[in-house]
Amino acid sequence: MDFMPDRLLTRPYDFGDIFGQLYLKTEGLYSTAIGASVTFIFLFILFGSFLARSGMGQLFNDLALALAGHKQGGPAKVAVISSGFMGSINGAAVANVVGTGAFTIPLMKRVGYSKEFSGAVEASASVGGQILPPIMGAAAFIMAETTGVKYSTIALSAVLPALLYYLGVIAQVHFRAGKLNLRGIPKADLPRAKEVLKARGHMLLPIVFLVVLLAKNVPIGYAAAYTIGATIVISWLRPETRMGFKDILGAFEDGAKQSLSVMAACAVVGVVIGVVNLTSFGTVMTSSIVTLGAGSLFLTLLLTMLASMVLGMGLPSIPAYIITATMAAPALATFDVPILVAHMFVFYFGIFANITPPVALAAFAGAGISGGDPMKTGWQSLKLALAGFIVPFMFVYNPNMMMIDVTDMAVTAKEFAMPAWHVIATVATTSIIGVLALSASVEGYFKTTLPIWARVVTAVGAFCLIVPETMTDIIGLGVVIAMLLLNVKMAKKQTALS
Known about the structure:
mainly alpha, 2 domains, globular, transmembrane helix, cell inner membrane, transmembrane, membrane
């Protein structure tokens, strides 16, 4: 062991120590990860299977088509909406890309989006489902157990960051459609929202039922089980969704198959956590991040982001959260970052590993359906998800975005007071404008093409709005409004000349 660097050196362990830690104790194979997977994660996967068998996917697809299919670049917006909702329920980004992408990706290619962009839209939307309340791919329930924060608080705190992420994706989709002059699908070829809701709208009731149960503090496992039963009964209200005996058996079979990869990953993560605890590697990693951060919160956040993305590579959202919460989140406690904020930060970057090359599994799945280049699809997914890489930094520096008032609050607090509504409104407004401006800058288009210099200036204004300071907000707002008004004027001039 003498050749090992000091940071990687540990005392030797015999077979008995390792066997006892990983098999006989509750920190290895029988850790929180595998315990959670068999007590309620499986039930939520099963719940998603029952919803799918009852036609929930069809409901989201048809409703999204009815609402956005005729808009500019409509099919891509349909993909974002339907994949986001389904991704939140099933909790598996790759499976969601394969399931909904088979329908949405050909639609996007048909109206003129490139193969890589079509696959990237589906991947970024599916990954974002893991951060979308109320279910968040079941990760919210693991987070509640890990942090001790109530589920309702976690779901509420995740609303604005998730909306900002999806706003960034939809804005880029819209601006790309404008730049390429892509049209939507004719209304005559689309379903009508009223008819869709009449036929399948009642299948939204199981989700409402689940949220009500959780809000009343019904144990998570019981809530999931009750909701599965309610889903079967509710499906009988309409012939289009009615589940027969074969459908129910099929849902059980689908749920069992889909849970295998998650449970296997949870078991492996349990082994990793067991070794980390045995060797105190988690403490060493936290110490290393803090040391390299040199007292800078921003640098520590960057290092924690990189660590979370590496740890989350190739993992479903729940195992990714468990391992990042164990190994990366503790570093942020040294800067008095509230425990919920720290865990949400590492969760974001743990799941974004699925769209970050070189191991961008969700993006590669999208490329497999679209026929595009996998690596180009991965980089395009990263570009579409740009807002998601910035939002976590925003809520660390300004927890008001997560509806958390940190005034006189301990870093380990489990109960959070909400900020005043005018504070939340201010944060939401500046953040929304900042994300829209950043999306326009990235795509180089608003009402017409943005020159390079205008893209740079708009991006600067967007980042000023993102920084949580009153003066930077004022400067950023002025810069962004000026640039966008100038772009509108240029568009009118081009229209007049043509």
